[in-house]
């Protein structure tokens, strides 16, 4: 499939439509925005999403990751176009939808504290709901440039990937997570971040190889490494091993590699960034493994280093690694 057929160009009219209507904003605008929100169904889980062009839906990466047989709405098959695992963004290609979807408008300006917000989505895979709240805080990630909007509006399971809009129906963010153990504490990725990274992701797709498009394989080297770790953390060892080059597989047979992993149960990526060389990627992550199942003993280590990738069959494959354990020793009380 040619890249041009994926309708990658962002609609200029949607780009320009960032100003509120001439009349006062109200519930009519929220209702209009709701019509551009969809349910994203998969074999393993459901989530929410919204149209950013007439043929592209934005949602969370964790909604589509390891979740085959994706559909938007009831009947429209969806293909993963591009993902950003670290920032939890995914773009889905959904062609030939009729009537043509209306993309949501976004606003680059960050909301202010105590501004009204509306979370629109499909909690637990059910009917569309709208939850009202306010901006409780504006926060930054501890490790990089990620910006989040904290809100007390309800963000339930299944609402992930849905838009967070202002009273004019403009997207200010995308619902991504809630804080476990706390009531009315939810987070949204700021639209200014979503917009800039969407542009970058689409440009990468435009330059992808036929093999990458056919296999929906990441065409960005950093995303190849990120997908490797998310796949490894999901326990899908055979799929993770397939990110290795033929040369690395020859040096490290699957059985030896799998046995050497121990009982890793969770991997949290902190950052995945381009390395100093054109085919290298820097990574920083935490890995938790089971020490004793009977006593529920776990151990978490911190790691960072570099991967070198090689081009193989039109795909980027992970070839050499230099990963170091930088875990700080625990001190006795």
Question: Keywords, please?
Answer:
Thrombin, subunit H; 6-stranded antiparallel beta barrel; 9 helices; 17 strands; 333 residues
Describe the structure.
The strands form 3 sheets. A 7-stranded antiparallel β-sheet has the order 5-4-1-2-3-7-6. With 333 residues, it is α+β, with helices and mostly antiparallel strands. Helices cover 21% and strands 37% of the residues. A hairpin with a 4-residue loop joins strand 15 and strand 16 (297-312). Residues 1-19 have low confidence and may be disordered. The chain starts with 11 loop residues before the first helix and ends in an 8-residue tail after the last strand. The longest helix has 16 residues, at 191-206. The chain folds into 2 domains: 3-197, Beta Barrel (Thrombin, subunit H), CATH 2.40.10; 211-325, Nuclear Transport Factor 2, Chain: A (Roll). It has helices at 12-16, 27-34, 61-64, 191-206, 210-215, 221-233, 237-241, 246-251, 254-260, and strands at 37-41, 46-53, 56-59, 71-72, 76-77, 79-84, 89-93, 116-121, 129-140, 147-151, 163-165, 171-178, 186-190, 264-274, 280-292, 297-312, 315-325.
